[in-house]
Amino acid sequence: xxxxxxxxxxxxxxxxxxxxxxxxxxxxxxxxxxxxxxxxxxxxxxxxxxxxxxxxxxxxxxxxxxxxxxxxxxxxxxxxxxxxxxxxxxxxxxxxxxxxxxxxxxxxxxxxxxxxxxxxxxxxxxxxxxxxxxxxxxxxxxxxxxxxxxxxxxxxxxxxxxxxxxxxxxxxxxxxxxxxxxxxxxxxxxxxxxxxxxxxxxxxxxxxxxxxxxxxxxxxxxxxxxxxxxxxxxxxxxxxxxxxxxxxxxxxxxxxxxxxxxxxxxxxxxxxxxxxxxxxxxxxxxxxxxxxxxxxxxxxxxxxxxxxxxxxxxxxxxxxxxxxxxxxxxxxxxxxxxxxxxxxxxxxxxxxxxxxxxxxxxxxxxxxxxxxxxxxxxxxxxxxxxxxxxxxxxxxxxxxxxxxxxxxxxxxxxxxxxxxxxxxxxxxxxxxxxxxxxxxxxxxxxx
Length: 447
What we know:
The chain is of the alpha/beta class and about 450 residues long. It has helices spanning about 5, 35-45, 95-110, 120-125, 130-145, 145-155, 160-185, 190, 195-215, 235-245, 290-300, 360-370, 380-395, 410-425, 435-440, and strands at about 15, 25-30, 50-60, 65-75, 90-95, 115, 225-230, 265-270, 270-280, 285, 290, 305-310, 325-330, 350.
């Protein structure tokens, strides 16, 4: 049974492939064996489907049984020449929710089912159109927050799996020396290759360690821990941000309420990175706290992983109700105004003016970032898996190559197993459901 059939891609699927509120154009994609029949029934295009883009008229039933003739652009792709390698029909038409609903109803009535999230990309992988790293790159492209992340994702989508290629080349080089030691042990240059084993293994381990550090440094903003700085208006939150992050330019003013929305800044502490958000301060009204500003802030609190609650001398601050299980750091600001002997309350005293407590605060945040269970993007997960496999294989192989009685054949077996695992990361022929679900579960329908 074919891999695509085993994993449930033998039927025909359909889904919108444009944004829900696209202002001008909408499109629906149909992929599978029934795509030619759908093209004939809806647009009058006779099978077989050719590779073409052509104007057509979509006939839909309107109010009171009236027939709507909607001018559309039809993109038809035969099997083997589409993204999924299945027969594909795309219908592009003026954006209109009623037209989309009517079109989908007609398609579903023909026995075509709604596509699951990411199913077009899943089928492209299952049919061999793209590799698993390229499928993960689609998820990276969807999640890209800036031009750099977008360019990296497009490179992966084009097949530039640089890490896996570099890693595999280094492993193959080690395997080459092992093969020579097994098959030609009497050759003088092979007999002297024991030192080469240690050099190659050292280089491979250095590569794995360096790449792990690089992955941490290149973590996209979407996967960094988010810390929200809370406090009353004019408590000095923006001044604290400027002290923690050289070059940050939050607007600082003696006027309460200067910060009007959540503002993110990237905080770098050693090799750790966090997103520090400067929240607008809650203001006092004549009747007490401004509950309207508190309510607006409460709606956003669940999006953060930790909170810095900044208190100010002589001012009571109502801490909002925070989600359970999140870290909360209590800070007392403007420490330069309060002598140490008169300070009360638990928490860390800090001052943006004198610098007191800033190093301790950075250490607290760095420790939080180290132990924070960061989500991992699909492509990063594949890279980390490849690095772990290499590390485990070297741990097993190195003892076999040490001492006077080297066992090159057993070491070669361990390296062969590693190469097979690296190939599985690229092709993943069997037992791939868990990995596939991790890659595709956050995809958008139509991608």
